[in-house]
Amino acid sequence: MSAVGIVAAAGSGSRLGADKPKALVELAGRPLVSWAVDTLLAGGVDEVVVAVPAAERDAFAAVLPGSVALVDGGATRTASVRAALSAAGPHADAVLVHDAARPLTPPDVVARVLAALAAGVPAVVPVLPVVDTTVVVDAAGTVTEAVPRAVLRRVQTPQGFDRAVLVAAYAALDDALVDALVDAAALTDDAAVVRAAGVPVTTVAGDERAAKVTVPHDLHLAALQATR
Ligand code: CTP
Ligand code: MG
């Protein structure tokens, strides 16, 4: 099985508030995007395509190996992944989609996702349990119900797909469906795209170290943990 990795790195990082795109922000001396690319390669992916902010292409090219393909991302994560997917080699059997914003993801997570695909599942996501009490609130912030957390999971990346399944699911994703899913806050990852196409999504164990860097506190925590 050959696998291509896609790194979604075209976001601006507005919540992090740095003076450059989040994927170029450094963690222990290396940009977040470099950590993400290295994790995919170390975990067994054969080649990598990175979706970057169009205006920053040169800056990304300067920090990534020449073997990594760059494509201009879009206005949303979905658009960025779609662009990278069309540039990803058609010879690959599998596609792993990873966030540049998860720099410390252990290669073991990549390996678990690849193993599930090799075993024949069409789609697989790394997940972790929910440990906090989790509730639903109304518009006033009053708790209306507690959610049974035993059935809940937090979903991470890289998410793995049979390449033909993911390509078909993105092709079936027309603008009206995107709008409906975004309105329902149901289009935050690639698994949602294949689920909208009726494809079952299985799970493997994620890892707390694959936490997403979203706000400055997350970067401080990552800096304490960065050892590679
Ligand atoms: N992403 C992307 N293209 C976009 C938006 C996001 O490739 N148009 C990527 C980001 O680069 C990031 C991942 O999707 O690696 C997860 O998104 P998020 O953590 O929300 O990053 P940003 O969108 O950059 O951050 P913010 O929402 O705070 O602006
Ligand atoms: Mg975002």
TrEMBL record:
Enzyme class at the top of the EC tree: transferase
Annotated EC: 2.7.7.60
Keyword Acetylation in annotation: no
Site, Transition state stabilizer: residue positions: R15, K22
Keywords of the record: Isoprene biosynthesis, Nucleotidyltransferase, Transferase
Gene3D superfamilies, alphabetized: Spore Coat Polysaccharide Biosynthesis Protein SpsA, Chain A
Database matches in SUPFAM superfamilies: Nucleotide-diphospho-sugar transferases
Pfam family, one: IspD
Annotated site location: Positions MEP for the nucleophilic attack: R149, K212
Pathway assignment: Isoprenoid biosynthesis; isopentenyl diphosphate biosynthesis via DXP pathway; isopentenyl diphosphate from 1-deoxy-D-xylulose 5-phosphate: step 2/6
Reaction catalysed by this enzyme: 2-C-methyl-D-erythritol 4-phosphate + CTP + H(+) = 4-CDP-2-C-methyl-D-erythritol + diphosphate
GO function term, MF aspect, one: 2-C-methyl-D-erythritol 4-phosphate cytidylyltransferase activity
InterPro entries according to UniProt: IspD, IspD/TarI, IspD/TarI_cytidylyltransf_bact, ISPD_synthase_CS, Nucleotide-diphossugar_trans
Family membership: Belongs to the IspD/TarI cytidylyltransferase family. IspD subfamily.
Protein purpose: Catalyzes the formation of 4-diphosphocytidyl-2-C-methyl-D-erythritol from CTP and 2-C-methyl-D-erythritol 4-phosphate (MEP).
Name the record gives this protein: 2-C-methyl-D-erythritol 4-phosphate cytidylyltransferase
Gene giving rise to this polypeptide: ispD
